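<instruction>
Derive structure tokens from the sequence
<data>
Labelled lines for chain and fold
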Amino acid sequence: MEYRSDLCAGKNVTFQAYLKRYYNTAYSHAFKQLVEDNVGRDGSLIIVSIGFHEQFNFNAVAWRFLEPAVRIINNFYRYRPTAPKRWPQIMYSLPMRSGLLKPTDFVKYQPEAGLILFEKQMRIYCRQRNIEVLDFQELGENVYSYDGVHYDLAVNELKNQILLNYIAASDK
């Protein structure tokens, strides 16, 4: 999603939003470059959600995708110990649980038990690196989707509104 002037009904829009489809570790280098391009840039925030397309492989997501980006930020701020905040801020959005309509082929490769373990591991990893975790699980409970993973406009608008309010409240 490229920046649009009609975001927030065009009222006091002071940010730019972009959607980069870095949904698996094949995009690790592109994600790393995105972080390099924004390191030290005040107010920059990168929200990432990766896991489903890696079959909840914690090692792939944490060590091949996120950790190189975390190292870029840490190295940049190693000699700037008085910096009030590190930029870009990274937030991790946990994958939402699958619903009843998820195709059985995908359930086999992405079982609920695997998702629960992955969530636990990612929470620990993120906490150790001061990466905030977004958890929208409850928004997907008792909501049906065509494939049990992707939700309709109403759910996504609610997630976006919660996210924007969270960012505003936490002074990112």
Q: What stands out?
A: The chain has a mean pLDDT of 87. The beta strands are 45-48, 89-93, 132-134. The longest strand covers residues 89-93.
